[in-house]
């Protein structure tokens, strides 16, 4: 198990889950800024955004979050102490264009990221920037119903052009959309869509997805034109789907479940819709509207690498009588009796990461980047301000060993950024208690706490992994 000398070790966050300062220095509202805490039925708000807009909730977790906006120097210094080579972060679109369609960008927002990138350079940390991480301006949802409207392509490209030119020489690695396949499952966060009012929600979802795919291609083209050093990637929720049994019907069900996610990457990596797309559209009564240049733009501007989130594998069956399910990253799954389960019902499967990486690399033959992976658990702080999170170390060790094995299999992998390297607000549930970080933040699910940062045991463990370029994974005892 040998990681390359230039393997990019690091961690990942998202602006809408960590920055806070939701109206500071001219920022506009983001989609998450109208979503309440879990105790105020966040899930219902997530799938009924108009009702969420009409409701005054007691607590909005994103409004302050962990206040990275005012703590970024302290936090990046801690990342550097761990030895980060790369920091995956996102830029808040409404911090740059508060309404999404403003004539001029918000200079105060741009200066904030100037300072963030300067802090990264100070410690020789490479930024990996997601351009839109569930962070479409709320105003574009109100005015256009989000990405259902083709005009968002040009608004997104205007935003991209500002970023590429402003941060030329400061940022080399870009991701166009976070977990682009999630627009089918959480359409409001994924694309600023309200699909409740239509008889054929799939039509809106796939049309919006098409607009994002075209926007991604044109952004890739623009990034290369502005700076030929730029490397642009796509990003999907990944995790191999296993058949429940060797019954061919279960195998077919698993294949189709995986195709739903790969559908998007087929377009971004190969440059055209897959052969099975027509059947999907017929079955879902979808008729895409195409512009004359869409096919050419998609074909000529494929991504440089493929990034993905991986938390667990999934399990499916064609038999409706197989009922026992468990939670996952957006997707529910049948419960796999061979896997352990976290406190939130997410099953852990390190070998599944190796399988997933081989599957994606075999399919596309482009470099991979594991940009989300981690374990959300409740952490206990001792009277001595220590956090003994051996369960997180065990999860990460298992996954990283299998990542190394995938590299030995011949998979090209640029790097690894574990999710929530510092505790942050959960996108799905709005909780702080579902913690992923190496760094503990004193904040609870009600928004109470000092925001003090504390190093967990996993902080020192990951520090050793990076310092030895992965060799520590084999040296340590389980």
Quick recap of the structure?
The chain is an alpha/beta fold and 478 residues long.
Give an overview of the whole structure.
Helix content is 40%, strand content 14%. It is an alpha/beta fold and 478 residues long. The chain has one domain: TIM Barrel. Helix 8 packs parallel to helix 10. The chain is globular, with a radius of gyration of 21 Å. The mean pLDDT is 96.
Can you identify the CATH superfamily? Glycosidases
Inertia-based shape: globular
Instruction: Give me the CATH architecture, please.
Output: Alpha-Beta Barrel
Would you identify the regions where 5 or more consecutive residues have pLDDT less than 50? none
Which percent bin holds the helix content?
40-55%
Could you tell me the radius of gyration in angstroms?
21 Å
Instruction: Determine the N-to-C terminus distance.
Output: 17 Å
SSE class: alpha/beta
Q: Please work out how many helical segments DSSP would assign.
A: 17
CATH fold annotation: TIM Barrel
Main beta-sheet annotation: 8 strands, parallel, barrel
CATH class wording? Alpha Beta
Mean pLDDT: 96
Number of domains: 1
GO molecular function: beta-glucosidase activity
Pfam families: Glyco_hydro_1 (PF00232)
InterPro entries: GH, GH_1_N_CS, Glyco_hydro_1, Glyco_hydro_1_AS
Organism: Liquorilactobacillus mali KCTC 3596 = DSM 20444
């Amino acid at each position: 198990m040998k990681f390359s000398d230039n393997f990019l070790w690091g961690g990942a966050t998202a602006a809408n889950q960590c920055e806070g300062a939701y109206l500071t220095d001219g920022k506009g509202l983001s989609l998450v800024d109208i979503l309440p805490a879990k105790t105020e039925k966040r899930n219902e708000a997530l799938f009924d955004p108009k009702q969420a807009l009409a409701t005054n909730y007691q607590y909005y977790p994103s409004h302050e979050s962990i206040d990275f906006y005012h703590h970024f120097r302290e936090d990046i210094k801690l990342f550097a102490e761990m030895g980060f080579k790369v920091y995956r972060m996102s830029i808040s679109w409404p911090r740059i264009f508060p309404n999404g369609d403003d004539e001029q960008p918000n200079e105060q927002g741009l200066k904030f990221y100037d300072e963030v990138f300067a802090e990264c350079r100070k410690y020789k940390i490479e930024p990996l920037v997601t351009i839109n991480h569930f962070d479409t301006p709320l105003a574009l949802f109100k005015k256009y119903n989000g990405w259902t409207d083709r005009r968002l392509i040009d608004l997104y490209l205007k935003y991209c052009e500002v970023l590429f030119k402003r941060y030329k020489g400061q940022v080399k690695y870009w991701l166009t959309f976070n977990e682009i396949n999630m627009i089918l499952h959480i359409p409001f966060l994924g694309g600023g869509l309200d699909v409740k009012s239509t008889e054929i929600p799939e039509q809106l979802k796939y049309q919006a997805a098409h607009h994002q795919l075209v926007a991604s291609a044109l952004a890739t083209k623009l990034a290369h034109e502005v700076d030929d050093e730029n490397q642009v990637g796509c990003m999907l929720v990944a995790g191999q789907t296993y058949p429940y049994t060797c019954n061919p019907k279960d195998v077919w069900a698993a294949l189709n479940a995986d195709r739903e996610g790969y559908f998007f990457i087929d377009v971004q990596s190969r440059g055209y819709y897959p052969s099975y797309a027509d059947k999907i559209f017929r079955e879902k009564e979808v008729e895409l509207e195409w512009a004359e240049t869409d096919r050419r733009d998609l074909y000529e501007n494929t991504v440089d690498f493929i990034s993905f989130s991986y938390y667990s594998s999934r399990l499916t069956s064609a038999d409706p009588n197989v009922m026992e399910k468990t939670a996952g990253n957006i997707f529910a799954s049948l419960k796999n009796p061979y896997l352990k389960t976290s406190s939130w019902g997410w099953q852990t499967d390190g070998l599944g990461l190796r399988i997933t990486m081989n599957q994606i690399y075999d399919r596309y033959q482009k470099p991979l980047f594991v940009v989300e992976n981690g374990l959300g658990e409740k952490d206990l702080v001792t009277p001595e301000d220590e956090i003994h999170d051996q369960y997180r170390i065990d999860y990460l060790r298992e996954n990283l060993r299998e990542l190394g094995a995938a590299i030995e299999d011949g998979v090209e992998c640029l790097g690894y950024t574990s999710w929530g390297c510092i505790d942050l607000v959960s996108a799905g549930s709005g909780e702080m208690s579902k913690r992923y970080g190496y760094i503990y933040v004193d904040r609870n699910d009600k928004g109470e706490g000092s925001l003090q940062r504390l190093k967990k045991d996993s902080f020192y463990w990951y520090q050793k992994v990076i310092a030895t370029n992965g060799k520590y994974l084999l040296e340590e005892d389980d």
